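Reply to dn_fold:

You asked what the input looked like. This is it:
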Amino acid sequence: MKYRRLGKTDLTVSVVGVGTWQFGGEWGMDFTQAEVDEILSKAKDLGINLIDTAECYGDHTSERLIGSYLKQDKREDWVVATKFGHQFHDKFSRTNEFDAAAVLGQLEQSLKALQTDYIDLYQFHSGPDEVFDNDELWTMLDKQVQAGKIRHLGISIAKNDNIHQTSSASRVNAKTIQVVYNRLDRKPEEQVFLSCQEQDLGVLARVPLASGYLSGKYKPGAVFAGNDVRHRHDQEHVNKLLQEVEAIKQNELPAGTDMAQWALAWCLQHPTVTTVIPGCKNPQQVEANAKAAELASDEHPQAIQRG
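and this is what came back:
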């Protein structure tokens, strides 16, 4: 595994983390505690130290599964990132709750679910600009940082060209940006990444496999089950993406290279990207994702050399 400095934080993170939206049950399967334990144990064995979750991956369901694992492990070995701003109602149904009092309640629920006294990275979760521009919210969060319940604040932008929130990061004491970035979606390169560089923000690239379309497992015409969030994607758009993936496979993928590992490493080659946070459904996928680190450059500006 390789590691990088996460922007202005004092955190060192593995270049490949574990994304855990799937633990909430919206990606085609429900997870048992034993399955989650096996996934996270494999991740740790491979040198992965970053877990990214959220308040609305289930009703704190993902956090609870992670918390039960952390209770049996060394909490200090992990960088735990979660998010705030939504109330989960049912699968694929959630509403915004970004006022300061509601977020404080979410924070307490997340700490309880994760069975921890502190969250390493607490991220504004894909909210609109009008709730982002709320000084009362950020004042409350700063107090939680001072109290030690949060180590660092971050912003997970909903639209990958949201320069307003990105450029405001330092003003609200946020030190990281989480953004959709992958070979099929390069929008952050236009403005967001430049602002991240100027502010020395850590960048977490989410959906690095383009919701699995860059895994190489799906052909044009693939149809997803009704309990898989991809079932909600426009089928015409999905077919277009998968046709583009076929072209990438033919024209860009080096011979003998795994498509998913190449796609993750492709994100990591950008000088602004700190880490990728792909989802995984089993230990084998964790292991495959981790191998992308072998393709990542040691010359990256945030690279940390370990003996």
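The domain at 3-218+259-304 is CATH 3.20.20.100 (TIM Barrel).
Hope that clears it up.
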